[in-house]
Amino acid sequence: MRPATPEASLPKGFTAPPIPRRHPTRRPDWLAAYLFLAPAAAVFAAFIAYPLVDGVLTSFTSNVVGRNGQFIGFANFATLLADPHFARAAMNSLFLTSGVVAIKLVVGLACAVLLAQKMPARGLIRALVFLPWAVPGLIAGLSWKWIFDEQAGVLSYLVQALGLTDQPVYWLSDPKIAMFSIGIAMVWHGLPFFTMMFLAALTAIPGDLNEAAAIDGAGPIRRFFAVTLPQMKEVIFVTVMLSAIWTFNSFHMVFILTGGGPAMRTHILPTLAYDYGITQSQLGLGAAVLVSVIPVFFILIMLLTRRMLASKQ
Amino acid sequence: MAEVVLNEVVKTYGDIYAVNHVSLTVADGEFVALVGPSGCGKTTTLSLIAGLNEISGGEIHIGGRLVNDLDPKDRDIAMVFQNYALYPNKTVFKNLAFPLQMRKLAKAEIERKVLSAAKVLDITHLLERKPRELSGGQQQRVALGRALVRDPRVFLMDEPLSNLDAKLRVQMRTELKRFHQDLEATVVYVTHDQLEAVTMADKMAVMHGGFLQQYDSPKNVFDNPVNMFVASFVGSPAMSLVPLEAVSHGSDVALRSPEGWELPLSPQNARKALGATSNQVVLGARHSTVKLHSAQTPGAVPGVVYTVEPTGDITFVQVFLGTSVVIVSLDPSVTVHPDQKVWIEFDQDKIHLFDGATELALAAV
Asked: Which of B319, B291, B287 lies closest to B306 in space, CA to CA?
């Protein structure tokens, strides 16, 4: 770095060499920079910014499918505030997201620790554990719908074969059970992401830290909490935040398994929005459902990006 | 402090012997360097002593106790790692306190021991910092401190200086040596840098290919290398090795080069050369024992200067004798230039002779 006043730091009688000037006709750097950014900016504008703005605007209208309504201010939001289905869907979203993420966190951590051990056929076992992640959401949803089928499903068969009950279990049509069933399917599908992230983080911890702790007298459990977990802090935070956003937004599992039923008892906010906006044609109301959660996402994403940027430094 | 005894220690990975029947004794209070090139088994040997690696065969005793089946924490050792292995989420104080907490010492006792170790290592002002806020040299001291607070029977050190810059390394080398002298600690020290071993250790164990090649004081290893590997590994620049053929002329013996010149041997060296399993004999000479002549001299053999490397107080000259290179050290005032024809004179009392087939040093019979 050149000091602020070059001459001041030089011995007497010396002059600093001139700072090289840019050629005056040279095109400024920012022009090239914006040129390179343009394609990404165009895609962002067309597929993210425009739909978002349009969605927010729609939430203030009485638009229905096929016909534009009028600007009605916050009327849609007022409707939602008084709507028991909205309140239930919001609670469902909250409990489903927190429950599913918490289970994925604990089980994913355990899986990662197990998979990090030396064992025969480790590569094969890892591949099998990661397999659900490769299954498209739609296929996963349909498969679980079969598994949960009251008449022909394997789960009902197993429960009855084991003698746990002689009644059919209404996995998806009993509203008390359906949310749990949905949760199981979502954990199954999302667990590999947690395991992968945690396994990568585990492998990146320098081995000598654990060795040092072993020599210092820490047993395996103490080493896990004193050495391993603190080293994984950042990865755990990012994984949980990302997964919370994805799980909250996840539409397909609920849509396929219950469609929000029975009696709209298993709706989460994305499926409720679809139900209002598309099935019942009230576009404005459907949009309002989703716009109402934007502040929540805004906070989550702010936390996430701030943490990710901080850990880079 | 305690004595460490390795008895026929073996570590295998499948068919590969990482450590091959190594036996050595580190006396109480001794500083022993395990030295050798990468993959020679020195670090594996250290981790066997620490108990971080399971031993495949043989016995390890620390302070008269067989430790083969003991966990690292029960061996009463402390280890300093190459990358320091400081707990990144703990302050320096907590790093030092951790091994003591694990031993369930009282809080006041822990604080007293940490502070006294910090004082010894001059890191008292760093106690509240996290490792990432420290320089390499400071981290090194903290790592040493964490070993020190334990008051262990043996210090194990795995290349502790290799991550420091050259200047700091020399400085820390001096401090480590002083540390050893003040504590009268038993130290087993792994390094690939033979200079570190020579300057710090009471004894050095030269390893190669899993085998212990030679275990002796640095001076003896330097003066009497047992084989060509040790000869070429210890010393900087390395000992020059020239493969030759022993020929007899009546009762006289000489070494003949492929180029045709002959080097007559003294009677003692002649007896050594005749003890070889074949007539293939390798001549070894350290740079300081070789003389360079610019004109033909009786007893000197012809060569050609390849490079001249001035280092300030000594100039090293590499001379091609046929296809082998001999390194000669000269006073910087002497001028030689590349491609100059020169004559090299070996000191019969200081040359080393090795069996060309077995690579072992030849002894007078």
From this structure: B319
